[in-house]
Amino acid sequence: MPRVELAIHEENRSDEFRKKNPFRTLPVLELDDGTCIAESIAICRYFEELHPEPALFGTTPLERAQIEMWTRRIELNLYLPIDFSGDFLGEHAARIFRDGAHRMMRFLDRELASRAFIAGRRYTIADVFALSALDFGVAQLRYALPAEQPNLARWHRDVSARPSARG
Hints:
There is one protein chain. By secondary structure, the chain is mainly alpha-helical. The chain folds into two domains: about 10-50, Glutaredoxin (3-Layer(aba) Sandwich); about 60-165, Glutathione S-transferase Yfyf (Class Pi), Chain A, domain 2 (Up-down Bundle), CATH 1.20.1050. The chain has six helices and two strands, in the order αββααααα. It has helices at about 15-20, 40-50, 60-85, 90-110, 125-140, 150-160, and strands at about 30, 35-40. The chain has a two-stranded antiparallel ribbon. Helix 3 packs antiparallel against helix 4, helix 3 (about 60-85) runs parallel beside helix 5 and helix 4 packs across helix 6 (about 150-160). It is globular, with a radius of gyration of 17 Å.
């Protein structure tokens, strides 16, 4: 897929971009016929339907449910707290969200003591989301992966070494 990078909060705010996504959020996948698909999970599901292996969203009802559960946990308890821990809500709110993100990191460290990946024995969309959340926090908000969480650090090192993570 050809990739077009936009200056966030600039190019995606234009009237032209609004035609592709009225919410003006990124990412957006524009198909050859002009159809646009917004939202990361929707785009990932589209690609998985086209190329079902490896199955990032699971292959059985139970596996799909567990992966969805972990993906939501990552979104609500890691990504959003990291995203909201910037100073734009004020220092008190930022501290509350940072504390929430760190609680989730400790929880993930305990969970990852018994398995290689977030949702089980193999790499899934939950790992993609968690890696994106942590890397965003490190790059944009000066988070540091806590040294006292060796299982999370091992997981982060391993998934960061995957070819797909090098973008």
